């Protein structure tokens, strides 16, 4: 049953002043009943609160225990945070050391490569001299080529070995040119191939291409000239039974040109790459037009 609200608010200074000012007995009686009813409602509220004390005590105890656990968790968290911070600092330190070691390793590797290059330069210098003495021109050319490759990478490795190598290189170039010229004059095709291949490691590709194309022109020219002279002899005989086939002669000439380029494809490409296949055609065409071949 819901109680009526009291006419005044008990427990306040205004209520006390109101009670002191009462003079009517009926009003006093009514206010007394209201006060008793208000006191009973307070008793009920107090009993209700007291009935919850056990649960509140349990909850307070649980909160207290939880606070202790939280303290432990906080302590562990602080410890983990300290470990993580220490680990991060250690990782940064290790990373810096790794970078320093990597830089040092790179410098050591570069130094070792330079030392190897110096040793290999010396070996190339000795090797080219020994190869020249043994007339092993192929090995000498390889030593020269390797020395030049090393020298281009390490320009500050000393000028005296470079000058000695250049002297040996000039000596080898002179020998190769002379041997190739003799082989061309004597039409020794195997020796021509042998010495023309040495122009690439010596860095004389353009010169080698010109010499070899000139050699091929000479070979083709000789065959064509013999065939042409045979046709001239037939013309001078004035024999109506024999046909002078100038078209066939010219056709054979161009066949010889194509076969020469195809058979020497490897050497021409080695001298000047793809351009090496174009140059012979240009030279042969000019020779045909001029009537040289």
Automatic annotation (TrEMBL):
It is found in: Golgi apparatus membrane. GO terms for biological process: protein transport. Residues 61-153 form the Conserved oligomeric Golgi complex subunit 4 N-terminal domain. Pfam families: COG4_m, COG4_N. Keywords: Golgi apparatus, Membrane, Protein transport, Transport. InterPro entries: COG4, COG4_M, COG4_N. The keyword Transport applies. One of its GO terms (cellular component) is Golgi membrane. Residues 194-277 form the COG4 transport protein middle alpha-helical bundle domain. It is a peripheral membrane protein. Belongs to the COG4 family. This is Conserved oligomeric Golgi complex subunit 4. It comes from Prunus yedoensis var. nudiflora.
């Amino acid at each position: 049953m819901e109680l009526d609200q009291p006419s005044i608010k008990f427990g306040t200074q205004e209520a006390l002043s109101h009670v002191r000012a009462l003079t009517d007995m009926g009003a006093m009686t009514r206010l007394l009943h209201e006060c008793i009813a208000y006191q009973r409602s307070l008793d009920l509220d107090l009993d209700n609160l007291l009935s919850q004390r056990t649960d509140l005590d349990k909850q307070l105890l649980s909160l207290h225990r939880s606070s202790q656990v939280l303290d432990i968790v906080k302590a562990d968290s602080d410890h983990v945070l300290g470990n993580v911070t220490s680990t991060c600092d250690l990782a940064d330190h290790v990373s810096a050391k790794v970078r320093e070691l990597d830089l040092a390793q790179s410098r050591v590797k570069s130094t070792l490569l330079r030392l190897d290059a110096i040793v290999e330069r010396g070996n190339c210098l000795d090797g080219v001299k020994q190869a020249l003495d043994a007339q092993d021109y192929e090995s000498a050319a390889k030593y020269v080529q390797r020395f030049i490759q090393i020298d281009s990478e390490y320009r500050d490795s000393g000028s005296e070995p470079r000058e000695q190598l250049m002297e040996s290189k000039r000596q080898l170039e002179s020998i190769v040119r002379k041997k190739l010229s003799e082989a061309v004059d004597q039409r020794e095709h195997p020796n021509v191939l042998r010495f023309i291949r040495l122009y690439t490691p010596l860095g004389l590709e353009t010169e080698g291409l010109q010499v070899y194309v000139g050699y091929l022109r000479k070979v083709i020219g000789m065959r064509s000239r013999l065939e042409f002279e045979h046709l001239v002899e037939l013309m001078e005989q004035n024999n109506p039974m024999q046909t002078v086939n100038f078209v066939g002669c010219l056709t054979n000439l161009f066949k010889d040109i194509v076969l020469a380029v195809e058979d020497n494809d490897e050497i021409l490409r080695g001298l000047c790459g793809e351009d090496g296949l174009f140059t012979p055609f240009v030279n042969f065409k000019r020779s045909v037009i001029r009537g040289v071949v």
